[in-house]
């Protein structure tokens, strides 16, 4: 058995020892162990695609902004990750400009940032 402090110290050494994984601290303070090949940009685009595909299509194949969007629970289920990690990933994608949030009485739903999407075409 090891203490939590010893585990945290060992996690700090993972990158230095080139084990292919390292400790990551999100802005909220959540700590995770992540593969060194992980790319935030790829995940943000994946989440934006999930949000985009959740929007119902109108007759002219344009998304309807009044329906759809994704929640933390949706992402957690779809990607098979914890709710806490899903929340961190969504917030990160929003900070990068790939998603926009809509906070309502029902909760928070994330939608693709259609302005950025249009600029990339």
Supply database-style keywords.
single chain, about 120 residues, alpha+beta, two-stranded antiparallel sheet, two-stranded antiparallel ribbon, 5 helices
Q: What can be said about this structure in brief?
A:
This protein is of the alpha+beta class and 121 residues long. The chain contains 5 helices and 4 strands; from the N terminus they run αββαααββα. It has helices at 4-13, 40-54, 72-79, 83-95, 114-119; strands spanning 21-25, 31-35, 99-104, 107-112.
Describe this structure in words.
The radius of gyration is 17 Å and the shape is elongated. A hairpin with a 5-residue loop joins strand 1 (21-25) and strand 2. Helix content is 43%, strand content 18%. The strands form two sheets. A two-stranded antiparallel ribbon has the order 1-2. Strands 3-4 form a two-stranded antiparallel sheet. Helix 3 packs across helix 4 (83-95). It has 121 residues and is of the alpha+beta class.
Shape: elongated
- Report the mean per-residue pLDDT as an integer: 87
**Helix-strand category:** alpha+beta
How many distinct helices?
5
Helix content: 40-55%
Q: Total strand count, please?
A: 4
> What is the N-to-C order of secondary-structure elements (H for helix, E for strand)?
HEEHHHEEH
> How many strands, what sense, and barrel or not for the largest sheet?
2 strands, antiparallel
Strand line-up of the largest beta sheet: 1-2
Instruction: State the end-to-end distance.
Output: 54 Å
**Low-confidence runs of at least 5 consecutive residues:** none
Sheet-strand content, in percent, reads 15-25%
Tell me the Rg in angstroms: 17 Å
């Amino acid at each position: 058995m090891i203490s939590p402090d010893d585990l945290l110290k060992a996690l700090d050494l993972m990158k230095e020892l080139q084990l292919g994984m390292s400790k990551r601290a999100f802005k909220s303070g959540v700590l995770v162990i992540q593969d060194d090949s992980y790319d935030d940009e790829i995940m943000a685009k994946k989440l934006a695609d999930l949000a985009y595909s959740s929007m119902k299509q109108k007759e002219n194949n344009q998304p309807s902004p009044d329906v759809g969007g994704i929640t933390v629970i949706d992402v957690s289920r779809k990607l098979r990750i914890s709710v806490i990690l899903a929340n961190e990933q969504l917030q990160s994608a929003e900070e990068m400009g790939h998603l926009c949030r809509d906070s309502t009485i029902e909760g928070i739903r994330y939608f693709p940032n259609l302005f950025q999407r249009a600029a990339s075409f």
